[in-house]
UniProtKB/TrEMBL annotation:
GO terms for molecular function: copper chaperone activity; metal ion binding. This is Copper transport protein ATOX1. Belongs to the ATX1 family. GO terms for cellular component: cytosol. Residues 4-69 form the HMA domain. PROSITE patterns: HMA_2 (PS50846). It comes from Meloidogyne enterolobii. Binds and deliver cytosolic copper to the copper ATPase proteins. May be important in cellular antioxidant defense. Homodimer. Interacts with ATP7B. Interacts with ATP7A. Interacts (via dimer form) with SLC31A1 (via C-terminal domain); this interaction improves ATOX1 stability and controls intracellular Cu(I) levels. The lineage of its organism: Eukaryota, Metazoa, Ecdysozoa, Nematoda, Chromadorea. Keywords: Chaperone, Copper, Copper transport, Ion transport, Metal-binding, Transport. InterPro entries: Copper_transport_ATOX1-like, HMA_dom, HMA_dom_sf. Pfam families: HMA. One of its GO terms (biological process) is copper ion transport.
């Protein structure tokens, strides 16, 4: 069982290209994030990170140009 904080976001994704863009942005963070789960139908992104706060991750996800908010 993981003890890392879980961060959940709503991201306005409408297609697989959108979700791939989110994956690319998060992929650049390397081992700062783990267990990334992107669910296109529910427009949700969930991940674990001890090093980054929800607010920091929110700003990083906004770099996709999509509307993003904490869940």
């Amino acid at each position: 069982m993981s003890s890392k904080p879980i961060h959940k976001f709503h991201v306005e994704m409408t297609c697989s290209g959108c979700s791939n863009q989110v994956q690319r942005v998060l992929g650049k963070l390397g081992d700062k994030v783990s267990n990334v789960q992107i669910d296109l139908p529910s427009k949700s992104v969930q991940l674990e990170s001890e090093e980054l706060s929800s607010e920091q991750l929110l700003e990083i996800l906004k770099k996709t140009g999509k509307e993003v908010r904490l869940m």
